[in-house]
Design a protein that fits this description.
Structural class: alpha/beta
Helix content: 55-70%
Strand content: 5-15%
Number of helices: 37
Largest sheet: 4 strands, parallel
Distance between the termini: 106 Å
Amino acid sequence: MADILFFPIRHHSPACAWHLERLIDERRPRAILIEGPRDATALLEQITHAATQAPIAIYTTFVDTTNQLAAPTFDRAKPARFSAYYPLADYSPELVAIRKGRAAGAAVRFIDLMFPEMVLAEGGQKKSEQARSLLDEHHMRHSRFLKALCERTGARDPDDLWDHLYETDFQQMPSEEFIKRVETYCALSRADYTTEMLAAEAHLAREAAMAAEIAAEAEQGDGLILVVTGGFHTPGLKERLAADEKPTARHEPITGDAQTLLMRYGFAQLDRLNGYASGMPSPAFYQRVWEHLHNPKTSDTLPAARATAEFIVELGRLSREKAPGLSPADEIAALDQTRRLAGFRQHPQPTREDLLDGIRSSFIKGSADAEGLNILTQARVLLAGDRIGDLPPDVGVAPLVDDFRRTARNLKLDISTLAAKEAHLDLYRHVNHRAISHFFHRLAYLDVPFGERRSGPDFVAGSNLERIAEIWRYAWSPDTESKLTEQTLYGGTLEEASANLLQHGLDEAEAKGLGRRSDVTATQLLHACRMGLQRFAPELLARTAALIAEDASFISLVSTAEQLLLLHSSREPLEAHHLTGLTDIANAACQRAYYLLPQLAGTGAQEENDVLDALNALQQVMLSLGDSQANHVLLRNGLRLLLDEPGGNPAIRGGAVGALHADGQMTDDELIRWVSGHMEQDGPGFLRGVLHTNRPCLWQVTALLENLNSTLCAWDESQFVRVLPELRLAFADLTAHEADLVARTVARQVGASVVPSLRITGAQPEDLLLGAALNQRVEETLARDGLAAFLEEATR
């Protein structure tokens, strides 16, 4: 009859891994069953390959392309996507069980639900753009019992509590006693859960599946079966196997896209302090402990004590490299303090928190917010580590990951470490630099975390176009390859995936009702050229041209013309010489925009600013197209028809008046009459539109300011207060210099003194009020001291 031994673990615990390793050596189980997706069993050969170096991760994805999830919250036009990691470090009990078990000849396999089954059992409740961990231990941080235990023992948090109870004296404890204590600890963390909560998070479905696998293995013959699962599940598994009824699991047929594969992982991602929600913080610290446990020269000593001493010395050396300060005597004091703290807390060897406290008390000599922050930041970076795992060359990866690696090598980009690097790219003179730029932009478009453009021209947004070079900061991370793996859905190469995602973006715009807007396609055209997908550009340009004739959005048409002219002027860096007719198509978009001008009278309040911005842009586009008299006439006629629309939006009508005056199609007197009439009728809304499209008229047409001042002075206080917010909004776009110019002009008109200009940057309203109060006190003091004449002379 088979003997079943449950080994409850905490994920990434060196103490659990050490006892598990020893137990496998002593008991020699015939089968080892591990919590983990069943389909990952096929990866065990690669996991135990001699060239595999931890940390690594099993990465699994599921795309619900057939809409199996009944949740109505999902957009049916876009399949729900899910992904998850199963990280493995050298000191992870699961990896130890795999390595030791296979070396001992045991039958090793995973027994949990496959990831798609898990998602379906949860009903898709954990959908997120961020991949989650399959080794989640949030229950250990939210348990009422464990929080009470932290208070009783003086532990700072559950991580500190775990170290206090299990990671300090595990070498002196029999494995049977260690297992019993861990099971008790984990049972307490489960005590807060109701049956409904367990079902909602799919724990019951998972435990049913694992129990069925255990029962099936028990029927295969005698011998020891070792079951390695998170301690949270151990009570549930025991209960199911102890029941009279044989455990069974129901596996629903899975449709849709799913994959499970291995990938490199890094300590930075494994560190819980960086956001990883499972396991232990400071992986480099526990890795050092694990290595000392298996070093023949140090295995019989206290590994955490040796690791602590090494980290203190390394931290002291690193601090001296950056700035003088810490000495070897400080390191000795920190080590002595760490040991004393460990003894005071009854720890046979220092814990991670003992080490940090020793560093705080001995290395920080100044302010905790200054020197202390720097020291502790260095310490946490050191304790986290920067190690990245590796896999054999023949381990299969997603084709998009393979293309990424190959392309990075060909472009001589370093992806071997987590360290960030910079790439300076001259887009106008070096073809290879353009290829690197295409690579970065394709990854950015695919939403792959790898490169960040720090400066340079943005041809899509139309900003910083005067610059000729791009500067990118890039760094590989496990998230890079996981996102690439997910985006394999769109293609096997970066070029193919980017092109298909371009088309997907157009399809999504169509689904959202934006498919008839030419600016959507024009934007995709710029993206295509920026990513080196010029072979798709003629089709996108033709599609843009076709959409212009039916585009009913003034904003869209002006944006299309802007983008096409930008592409025309940037043909060299965007390699768009083969595109012909760009200016003709841009002109067609302008012609259509002129035709739509009268319809802008019905613009709603939410679109006011966008329409006013488009009116401004239209004037610039007209100049870029050659400043032809025919276009001036079309613009004038369209704007005049807009003004003839009764009851139109005041701000838009004001924008039309400002545009006509700026284009020389309206006299100063006519401008004043329009503004004067609307100030009485519509308040400052009309003025805001005028200034949005023609700010210079404020200081170029002095009679306009005189008229505005007269109008404002004629209002009573209640009327002025009522319109003051909108009046302030009308002048909000003025620069500091322009506001000063207007103020001086008004001051001269009313005979007021003009004070010297003060350039104030970054001031808050309360700063200005304080300044005004101080200014008044200075004036009063000067007057009291008989120096008022001096002040008057200085302000002339």
